[in-house]
Design a protein that fits this description.
Layout lengths: L3 H13 L1 H15 L10 H8 L4 H8 L5 E6 L14 H11 L3 E7 L5 H4 L8 H16 L6 E5 L5 H10 L6 E4 L10 H12 L5 H11 L11 H11 L15 H15 L11 H4 L2 H14 L5 H11 L6 H8 L16 H6 L2 H11 L21 E6 L2 E6 L23 E6 L2 E6 L9 E9 L2 H9 L7 E5 L4 H4 L8 H9 L4 E5 L12 E6 L16 E5 L4 E4 L3 H6 L20 H6 L15
Parallel strand pairs: 1-2, 1-3, 3-4, 9-10, 10-11, 11-12
Antiparallel strand pairs: 5-6, 7-8, 8-12, 9-13, 13-14
Pfam family, one: ILVD_EDD_N
Cofactor: [4Fe-4S] cluster
Organism: Methylophaga nitratireducenticrescens
Length: about 600
Amino acid sequence: MVHPVLDSLTNEVIERSKKTRTAYLARVDEAAGQGPHRLTLGCGNLAHGFAACAATEKSDLAGDKKANIGIISAYNDMLSAHQPYKDFPPLIKEAAKEAGGVAQFAGGVPAMCDGITQGYPGMDLSLFSRDVIAMATAVGLSHNMFDAAMMLGVCDKIVPGLLIGALSFGHLPTIFVPAGPMPSGLPNKEKVRIRQLFAEGKVGREELLKAESESYHSPGTCTFYGTANSNQMMVEIMGLHLPGGTFINPNTPLRDELTKEAARQVLKFTALGNDYRPIGHMIDEKAILNAIIGLLATGGSTNHTMHIVAVARAAGILINWDDFDRLSQIIPLLSRVYPNGSADVNHFQAAGGMGVLIQELLSQGLLHEDIITVGNEKGLKQYSQEPKIIDGKLIWQEGPKESLDKDVIGTVEQPFAKSGGVHLIKGNLGRGVSKVSAVDVEHRVVEAPALVFDDQDDAVAAFKNGELERDVIVVLRFQGPKSNGMPELHKLSSPLGVLQDRGFKVALVTDGRMSGASGKVPSAIQMCPESAEGGPLTRIKDGDIIHLDTERGIMNVLVDDEEFNARLSCMMANTEHHYGSGRELFDSFRAGVSSAEEGAINMFNVE
């Protein structure tokens, strides 16, 4: 039986979304009713579509018996997480042919790495790259050649972008194919220790680079629980990955077999068969709420307080931060993966992984089982199984019934925290979010004077000059999507961590982002309304006392309301972050983007 709060909220979201969801599904069903779209093409159009194919494939695509898979890939060989995708298209094409179908590489999408651009001009493109990826996905699928789609992507904005793009072709059955995490390297806590020593000037660049290279050391996803691995969790808990396939390392026999099986599986679900499962129907209100539940239960990336909202709206579903907050009251924190623990995702997988997590949530009525998935069965119950190769064949067996390491995956009865790892923050400075799962309890409430900055480099310089050697709440303004594209602000993680370790009470308040790598320093981020819209952060002065309680979700500046409201909003002084590294190409994005709580959407408005 589903928990009464989850049941009530689900009904509210369904009712709230009735108009927009009905309109979306009508478009999906209209497209589905046209049959294989390539058969509506003129002869010249179709000939262009299969001109480069082998003779047998041309014959297959000219008819209406064999399905064609469109592959959309975020491959590039600079990003460790996406480098393994180089070998996936040949595996997919081979498997599709064996299963009686065809597969074509439909298009590539850009894939940038926040780990590389962090603190540099390219980071200002990061959030908007999600919308570019969504549009590039739509371009790749726009040729009316496909009966199904496969999405190859892992990191940050890439998976949400692929998912939004796929939902614009909601009549197509779609499966997501992970690449898997790199093997464990230097422990994440040791990496952070070296970073803080570097910030203090106690080690040099050579020692820092050595530590970083031992942490990020091979093909595969970074092993900490940031946005990339939160993406992978989200996609599996919504039923878009094959059961148990999310955290299998790249370049292994099991990873390759799962990739081939994904191609065979999606062919079963096309409109040409008897088990049609279009993604527009798969991603419904229950699947979206499952994604939020997974985020809270694992203490995942705060980026998903925007991405899940945007994905939902692409499917005609309306959710908001109050929904996250209500669920956080009933969803406990069930995993400890860095930065909210010492384990990495490989340890999480070894402890039972997604199968144990899903099974535990289902057993307590804290997850919707009755969703459409890409597994052999439609419901989520099968996702307690794990894939194995036995006698050369890929099979699924029942996974562990409970966690194999209670320090990594807990239970609802004995959670790591009673509420979810992401909290809504409210008060006279607006609305924002805070990732509390990695913050020790003694640091979750901070009351201190504000020191205001409009550029993170100025805050770092103040640290180096000793100006932050005190209790302080750093207020960093004009970092929202309309200001400069809302870059992540991890340049501040090490300096603020150093100050906290020295015994000072510190916190960060900003309309920018910190993402899944948010660490031990308390913060209130993604504040709305943002500074570029004259939000309350623009009226804060140096020395104002701010009270931040991330546990209760309350933040206020302790200034008389009449005085505070009478202050003039300070406006952004310059636009230097609008030029260089391609940022001038994104003027229309900054001008047209919605608020963080509305998903920071630029492309569409479902209301």
